[in-house]
Amino acid sequence: MKSVSSSGVSPKESQRDWNRWQLLVATLMCCPLMVLISSWWHWSSVTPTSSTRPPFYTATDAIFNDTTIELDPCHDKEHLLKIVESTGIRLVNNTTRRIICEMMPTWTQVTSLYGNKPRILGLDTCQKYRNMLAQANVSSLVPIYSMPRVAGLHNSGTNALADTFFDNLAMNPSVRSNNPRVYNTPWRKHTPLEYRYNVTARLYDWHENKHHVLPVVVIRDPYRWMAGMCKLHYNVRWAKDARHCPNLVAYPDNRSEFMLKPSVHVWLDLKEPTLRTSVEYESLVHMWSNWNQQYVEADFPRLVVRYEDTLYHSEQVFRAIAECAGIPLKHDTFRPFALRASSKKNTSNDLVSALAKNGVNHDRFSRMTTNDIAFAKEHLDPELLLLFHYKHQDDVPVQSFAASDLAKRGLD
Questions:
Q1: Tell me, what DSSP letter sits at residue 218?
Q2: How far apart are CA 313 and CA 110, in angstroms?
Q3: Of the candidates 359, 363, 372, which has an alpha carbon nearest to the alpha carbon of residue 400?
């Protein structure tokens, strides 16, 4: 016989009802917890943790007063990506594209330093140069001289421009050479202009008329150039200081000596068969100013182009040079300079690295002391800076070391 309780409900039915109540209570208690877990799971997939790579990154842009903003790593970098792709690097892979984008400055950063168009000095002398060649019939007599020639200080991108000439200009068939250095000036590209009649490189005939040459001089941001000289100084000598470079002003041995220290003189050694001398300059900034100013003030046809424009406006600059010289191109499509360093000692000079490091402002003065910067602001040629849109560091006071500066260097 089935047993029943006093309420008329069997024990099994009573147990079943009790289980149902427990399940209902458990469900009501677990729902808020499940909502929290679900929310955490959703937001963790959007907000990156330290172990995940975010789809966007936080970048600090000095142009916007160091305001931290969130932006796509490729935002405002389309022009730079086109330059990279023109070299043959394919950015179809998202990972490769992201890596390149994260290396690059924004186009706003680049234009804030150099403006939004190239600056080429001497285009008004091009017709005079072509007329001179036509009158002298140079193109048929000495074809090697009827092409543009590269000149510039060390660490100014002269090799890259010579390679670009070699890869793109239609060389006269009578010039039988596979050496891009035939595009250097016959008085050697690093020689100061005042010595052009004293030096002739081995590739050239001493008796040829050097007036038939169209020098294309590469000038570089003086602060970047000095940093390059600190890294690789070639045949330039000066008293470097291990504590800072370029050491424009001699570093004080103690605080009281600071204002008495003179500038650090520089020597450019010329070791040619016909000229062995050392050209002395008051400092590296005087060397940059004096060497470049000789070409700016020259009374014969020449072009002066910014190194930075050979990076960020390379095709426009090169076509202007070719048109000025009256030289046709080898190919319908422009070929930017090859991705290779200028020497084995300088392995970071490829195009991608150059685009990245020359487009930002924050590290142009990183190894200079306060008084180095003050000295540069006082002695860099203001005409050259204005002509080529180069800037000083605006927020550095013109005064001696603060106590904190000396303390950091162990001189307090």
A1: E
A2: 11
A3: 372
Which pairs with CB-CB distance under 8 Å and at least 24 residues apart come from 86-91?
86/315, 86/334, 86/336, 87/336, 87/339, 87/351, 89/339, 89/352
Do residues 3 and 10 lie in contact, with contact meaning Cβ atoms separated by under 8 Å? yes
CA distances from 213 to 16, 78, 196 (A): 105, 38, 11
> CA-based angle 385:389:390, to the nearest 5?
55
Taking the C-alpha atoms of residue 347 and residue 237, their distance in angstroms, rounded to an integer, is 22
Q: Hey, CA dihedral for 234, 237, 239, 245, is it positive or negative?
A: negative
pTM: 0.74
Residue 53 CB neighbours (<10 A) = 8
Q: What is the 3-state secondary structure (H, E, C) of 296-344?
A: HCCCCCCEEEEHHHHHHCHHHHHHHHHHHHCCCECCCCCCCCCCCCCEC
How far is Cα 78 from Cα 373, in angstroms, rounded to an integer? 33
CB within 8 Å of 225: residues ≥ 6 apart:
153, 155, 156, 288
- The whole-number mean pLDDT for each consecutive block of 10 residues of the chain, a chain of 412 residues, reads 52 64 58 47 41 32 40 89 85 84 93 94 95 74 64 94 86 59 85 91 63 92 94 92 83 54 89 90 97 96 97 94 89 72 47 90 84 92 95 54 36 32
User: 348 vs 167, 201, 230, CA distance in Å?
Assistant: 21, 28, 14
Three-state secondary-structure class, residue 17: helix
Residue owning tokens 């590290």: 363
Give me 187's structure tokens. 């008085």
Omega within 30 of 0 (cis) for the link into 246: yes
pLDDT value at residue 132: 87
**How far is residue 130 CA from its own chain's centroid?**
33
Distance CA 362, CA 227 (A): 13
Give the span between the Cα atoms of 284 and 140, in whole angstroms.
Answer: 42
Q: CA torsion 120→338→335→88, rounded to 10°?
A: -130
- The reported pLDDT for the residue numbered 301 is 95
